[in-house]
Amino acid sequence: MVTALAWLLVLAALLLPNELARVTPWTFLRIPVEAILGVAVLLALPARPRRLVAILGGAGLGLATILKVVDIGFFTVLDRPFDPVFDGSLFDPAVVFLTQSVGRAGAIGAVIGAVLLVVAVVVLMTFAVLRLTRQVVAHERTATRATAALVLAWFSCAALGAHVVPSAPIAASDTAMLVKGHAVQTRASLRDQRAFEALAAVDAFRDTPGDQLLTALRGKDVLLTFIESYGRDAIEDPLYAAKVGAVLDDGNRRLAAAGYDSRSAFLTSPTAGGGSWLAHATLNSGLWVNNQQRYRTLVSSDRLTLTSAFRRADWRTIGVKPGVTQAWPEGRFYGYDRVYDAYNVGYQGPPFPLATMPDQYTLTAFERLEHSTPGRAPVMADIALTSSHAPWAPLPHLIDWNDVGDGSVFGPMATAGESPEEVWRDRDKARDAYRRTIEYSLSTVVSYVERYGDDDMVLILLGDHQPAPFITGDGATHDVPITIVSRDRAVLDRVAAWQWREGIKPDPGAPVWRMDMFRDRFLSTFS
């Protein structure tokens, strides 16, 4: 029985795909070429090197299995495989996410459990391969004949293209292809930094004088406002489109009644499911920032950002970042005159997981601290609205703006409804919670513009990325909606050549730009 379990463990590890969508019972009814080659090598070696190869092979297979599981997690959450070069730096944000979702004790327990699981898988896989090696050697003649038969069967199935299901060829080589793919990815990642530095060195606006920048927006307050996880699926997927669309249609009517007009399209984000800072950096810098190394290289450079262009042109530049809960030196790179984070906006209400505070309080604080200040210069504000950040529970709701105060009024909302753990145990509940947070964020922005907007306000409203494939399903694009709202017809006439659609909801045929194209087109259009 122990030998049978060892075979099952090794074969399951070899046949396990690195994407959850490809995992079916039929996936494990295939012939792994790695097992055939492994047995052949072990049979050909003398006793001492055979044992060493078995130990190394078992440990390597254990690590490859862990890599497959990590890939499954990355595909499920971020819609891409794990990058061994860049993604180690995501460990800290992951721990922060766990801490704010399930508490410090739960996060520590999860980290300890993950470490123990890695050790257990490597050790068990090594012992399994050693046991099977002894069995193969003890039955050498039978093992040799079986290996020869399996070689013939594998090559026959490969030549015929035989499949048990469309995504699972009988002649399997999943683990070998995984290792090869990550090796190629690692080499490409190591070369990427030099290529990115060369791209960053080219900047058409680097030396443009401030009096020539953004001349068509003089005197305007420009609010660059990101809604967390507001992706194309929120307005087109049948799971969300009807109710989110109703909020957008109502928003159109209300904004029109207040004298505003708007234009909308889509941007393709460099990330999905997470990594909001990559999207913010891409839009601001005009460079495609799709990994952590590119981000670190960018924020240590003197690249002109959209924010710093406004600052050069004599706007007061503000970063409103309620999700920032620790030191954030990147604020200097972006060129903010002032950064408002989770701790310096006067919020006395309860914390909301990852969001820290409701969007309504974030906008109220901006209004009180900057927008309503008498005698001020025009403001360019980069605002991150985080209520729609996973785990989407608990959910705040819109209240009278006069009642927001110091945020303590939101206390009952932080304990109402289901907990994040309860929501995430049920995919349908998680999807419903996601939709409702997007509705809340959109309604809050529309209500803010109605109440505090004026003739000099220009709102640029967009998503940072799509939510995780857990919410969108497989195959979703990386597109996010973007909208420009203004009472000044001259502002919208400037973007007429962009051919964006009227209203705050882009239709399916609206233009789609890569997010890194926005900075240069915006600066060219308004300068």
Automatic annotation (TrEMBL):
Residue intervals passing through the bilayer: 31-47, 54-78, 107-130, 142-165
InterPro entries: Alkaline_phosphatase_core_sf
Stored Gene3D superfamilies: Alkaline Phosphatase, subunit A
Keywords: Membrane, Transmembrane, Transmembrane helix
Protein's UniProt name: Sulfatase
Species this chain originates from: Phytohabitans kaempferiae
Lineage of source species: Bacteria, Bacillati, Actinomycetota, Actinomycetes, Micromonosporales
